[in-house]
UniProtKB/TrEMBL annotation:
Domain of life, per lineage: Bacteria
Name of the protein: Phosphonate ABC transporter, periplasmic phosphonate binding protein
Pfam families reported for this sequence: Phosphonate-bd
Length: 268
């Protein structure tokens, strides 16, 4: 079985943090697993289709769509979400270059919109839902150019910093990790506005994995705490993990349908 945190290995330091935390949770569960690297630009769908997943991060949108034969294990509780009182949730941040004069999202309309990929919630679906509120009979197109697919949150930041895009989405947890470890990069961009919260990407296991093994791993993750396990959690900006019900992620599919009903099926 394998573990992988590609989605939130946004810097080398973050990647190392996950390579400490996940194997330790597996060890405490009395299990064994291999750490598998799966670097961008390889498509995450290829990873999620494997039948030997034990603890692998998956975007909540394909999980809610039931596109892959997986079971939920746990979702992280970030420090930011804990402060907001929304454990297990995150937001999509609309980022602009620090030099941008835009004071609101409407002031970016007509410009260049970056995105990660059309299978991502934070990098596409959440963007579409948020922007669909601005569509009307006289305004059916919001941006003159799309920049992407950029695949990773980091590439969105880099594109904005390089002046290749005017606005782009960022997973708020990915942003917090980038800010923690690469301030020289993040100082070139700023937050313009935020989406409504959505359930976090989650750790999943293949549905071929023994349910008792999944339960043992869930227990190991849920019992991580900020006092005893500070060296595992704090470098990743985490308070711990929770196990939401499997239908908690349905809301992201509902938002897809709302965007479609507003006549905004694709970013434009």
């Amino acid at each position: 079985m394998i573990v992988n945190a590609r989605m939130y290995s946004v810097t080398p330091a973050a990647a190392e943090g996950w390579k400490r935390l996940l194997p330790e949770a597996v060890r405490r569960a009395g299990l064994t697993a291999e750490i598998v690297d799966y670097p961008a630009p390889a498509r995450l769908e290829g990873l999620w289709a494997r039948s030997d997943l034990l603890a692998v991060f998956m975007c909540g949108w394909p999980f809610a769509q039931r596109r892959f034969s997986v079971r939920p294990v746990a979702a992280p509780v970030t420090e930011e979400a804990a402060r907001e009182g929304i454990p297990g949730h995150y937001r999509t941040l609309f980022m602009v270059p620090t030099s941008s004069t835009a004071r609101c999202l409407e002031e970016t309309f007509g410009g260049r919109l970056a995105y990660t990929n059309p299978e991502s919630h934070s990098g596409y679906n959440a963007v579409r839902y948020h922007l669909s509120a601005y569509i009307n009979e006289t305004r059916k197109t919001l941006y003159r150019t799309l920049v992407g697919p950029l695949i990773t949150p980091r590439r969105v930041v880099e594109a904005l910093a390089a002046g290749e895009a005017d606005v782009g989405p960022l997973d708020s947890y990915a942003w917090s990790l980038l800010c923690r470890y690469e301030p020289e990069l993040t100082r070139h961009v700023r937050i313009l506005t935020r989406s409504v919260p959505a359930p976090m990407p989650l750790l999943v296991a293949s549905d071929t994995v023994n349910p008792q093994a999944i339960a043992a791993l869930q227990t190991a993750l849920l019992t991580l705490n900020t006092e005893r396990d500070a060296t595992l959690l704090r470098p990743l900006g985490l308070r711990g993990f929770i196990t939401p019900s499997a239908d908690a992620w349905q809301v992201v599919c509902d938002r897809e349908e709302i965007a479609f009903s507003r006549g905004y099926a694709t970013l434009r």
